[in-house]
Specification:
Length: about 300
């Protein structure tokens, strides 16, 4: 076992069982908030180990709900900031805050509109991790938002471990030529190094969702913010009509130069987006930047 594989020491759980917490605070799951709770601390501990959370790390968790994953993060010795949209969870989270003194900070609000730089303030950047069992209805916009949180070329976070519905995880990890390869695959793989931690069956959650879920780990990857912005435009155009040739779909970006740019990169202009590598897309985006940064 290398030091990286070695699990951080978990203190014993000092709080009442999550089912009791949910019953006492009347936290019946709300579908519209994507509430599917993880009540098995073995699973939440495994996510924390996968995220390589070490004592003293700063972690942002979105959607703590009754706090199962939060407890595992705290037991691993992390300083945790949670952002929860459902104010009903506040009393349960306050109990955890009391048990762990000054290591939990609670923000009630919408993670989509929260300013992470405020949450990150006062922390060293590279040790910050984002760990979450995400509400599925906002998981993709949240991922894109976090991939774009950069200080120069580097992400402002040092790693992420995020639970998605399996179909979204498949798209994040897909390789060129696969049916699931698309814009999300290119953006995620250009701006980070994603890998699969584990799949989880629906029965692992209370209440169970209709689909399987997967935890994906993200390692930071250098990519200038303006190049990522160009990549967003290029991939939006390229995948707007999957079955069309790139010389057609990329015309709104490169105009009359489309075929020449594609040829310069060694890409056949009649090729389709689903067969281009992430490197091809980055090459195209560099052209989009150099030749017309505003287009
Ligand atoms: N972390 C808990 C667990 O693993 O048991 C709950 C995970 S549950 C899948 C998603 C959580 O995200 C819920 O607590 C829900 O209220 C919260 N949530 C939903 N939309 C949110 C948003 N826009 N911002 C912050 N939290 C949100």
């Amino acid at each position: 076992m290398t030091p990286k594989d070695r699990p951080p020491k978990m203190d014993p759980d000092i709080l009442p069982p999550l089912r009791d917490v949910i019953a006492r605070h009347d936290l019946g799951a709300r579908k519209n908030l994507g509430q599917h709770f993880l009540l098995d601390l073995n699973i939440t501990d495994k996510i924390v180990r996968g995220a390589d959370v070490q004592p003293g790390d700063s972690v942002i968790e979105v959607g703590p709900g009754p706090g199962g994953l939060t407890r595992s993060l705290l037991r691993a010795g992390a300083f945790v900031t949670v952002v929860e949209r459902d104010a009903r969870c506040l009393p349960a989270l306050k109990e955890i805050e009391q048990a762990y003194n000054d290591r939990l900070r609670i923000t009630i609000g919408d993670a989509l509109s929260v300013d992470e730089t405020d949450l990150f303030r006062g922390h060293g950047t590279q040790s910050i991790k984002i760990v979450a069992n995400l509400p599925y209805y906002v998981s993709t916009p949240l991922l894109i938002k976090w991939l774009k949180l950069r200080d120069g070329d580097q992400p402002v976070w040092g790693g992420m471990a995020l639970m998605f519905q399996r179909e979204v995880a498949d798209r994040i990890l897909a390789k060129p030529g696969a049916k699931t390869y698309g814009r999300l695959s290119v953006l995620a793989q250009a701006a980070s190094t994603p890998s699969l931690l584990m799949h989880l069956p629906a029965r692992a959650f209370t209440p169970p969702p209709k689909v399987e879920s997967s935890v994906v780990l993200f390692e930071p990857k250098a990519l200038p913010a303006d190049l990522l912005a160009a990549l967003e435009r290029v991939t939006a155009a390229a995948f707007s009509q999957r079955r069309k040739m790139l010389r057609t779909t990329l015309k709104p970006i490169f105009g009359a130069d489309t075929e020449r740019f594609l040829s310069t990169l060694g890409v056949t202009p009649t090729e389709r987006a689903e067969n281009l590598t992430v490197g091809d897309f980055i090459g195209l985006s560099k052209h989009a930047l150099v030749d017309n940064p505003t287009r």
